[in-house]
Amino acid sequence: MVLTDVLSLCLRIGELAFTSVVAGLNGEYLHQTRHSSANSRKRFIYVEVIAALGILFSLLFLLPFASSFLHWPIDLFLFVGTMVAFGLLAHYDKQCGSVWNWRGITNGGACDKFKATIAFLFLASIFFLASAILGWWVSRKGRRTARVDAAHSSHGRRKWYRRY
């Protein structure tokens, strides 16, 4: 159990770091385009909301009294949300070229920040998926152990004094 606790802690820290980077980069873009219509920025607003939810839940589940393995449905929900946000940004019609073209990414322009946002969003989604799988596996393992222990307590036989 110690290994799964350490792994869960590392995944939560990664989720927090990656969603914080996404929120910062995306928030900077939203601030720069604050005078344009909200209709043209709606996908970026969605990304900011998902990043905020990711930060909130990763901080909540980092607390030591929170049983982090019971929250795997929320991690699965955040994985789906971040993948939808990734898809929305990947198909954004912008003049930055292909999302998968990483040449010249260190120039520091708006396209570089946009591609960095997409990359960190993808990494955050992978961490949410890994955390959901780990939580599901640990909770399933715990139920199976409890069921097996109850079944083997009588060694598969009825007691001589019980009528069934």
Largest sheet: none
Low-confidence stretches at least 5 residues in length (pLDDT < 50)?
Answer: none
Structural class computed from helices and strand pairing: mainly alpha
Shape: elongated
The Cα radius of gyration reads 22 Å
Spell the H/E element sequence: HHHH
What share of residues is helical?
55-70%
- How many beta strands in the DSSP annotation? 0
* Distance linking N and C termini: 39 Å
* Rounded mean pLDDT score: 83
- How many helix segments? 4
Strand content: under 5%
Quick take:
Helices cover 69% and strands 0% of the residues.
Write structural notes for this entry.
With 164 residues, the chain is an all-alpha fold. The chain contains four helices and no strands. The two termini are 39 Å apart. The mean pLDDT is 83.
What is the fold's blueprint, element by element?
Blueprint (H helix, E strand, L loop, with lengths): L1 H31 L9 H21 L9 H19 L19 H42 L13
Helix pairs in contact: 1-2, 1-4, 2-3, 3-4
Keywords: Membrane, Transmembrane, Transmembrane helix
Protein name: MARVEL domain-containing protein
Main location: membrane
Keywords:
elongated; 4 helices; 164 residues; mainly alpha
